[in-house]
Amino acid sequence: MSFFESLIGFCLLTWLSVISAAETHYNETQVSDSVYKTESTVYEMIEKFNFPRGILPEGANRYVLHEDNRFEVYLDGDCKFNVQGGYTLHYSKKVSGIVGFGSLTQLRGVSVKIIFLWLPINEVNRGDGNLDFYVGPISASFPLSNFEECPQCGRGVDCPKLLSDS
C-alpha cells in the first residue's frame, strides 16, 4: 500500500469518525432536550406542581413538559371567560411558560382585559390560600377556592373528572 493510499484511508477513517461523533452528539442533545412522557392529563400535571386544576379552562387536551420544566399546553381553541372582579381572561390555543412547584413564570398565551386593554399575564404564584397573578410588576390575588372548577369558555365552570373522582 502506498503512502498516498494510506493517507486517503486515514483521512476517510478520520472523517467517518467525526461524522459519527457529530451524530452521537446530536442524538444526545435531542435526548437531553426530550420531553417527559405525558401519560397523565394536563389537569393532573398542573396539580403535581401544586396548582388547582381550575387554573386551566376546560378543553386543555394535551401538553408537553420538557425536562427543564418548560411546558406547552394546547386547548381546543382560544378561550375567553369572565372571572371575579369583572375581569375577562383570554387563553390562546397554545399556552407556554416554565412551571415550578407553586410557580408559573415566563407565561405566554394568557391575558386579562382591564378596562379596555388586554394585558399579558406573565407569572402566577401560589401563596397561602391564594393565587397571585402578575401583569408586569402589578399583581392581583384570588382565593384558591375560585379555582376548584375549570372555567368553560363562556359557560360557567366544570373540570374533567378523573375516574378516581367518581
UniProtKB/TrEMBL annotation:
SUPFAM superfamilies: At5g01610-like. Pfam families: DUF538 (PF04398). Residues 1-21 form the signal peptide. Coiled coil: none annotated. Keywords: Signal. This is Uncharacterized protein. It comes from Protea cynaroides.
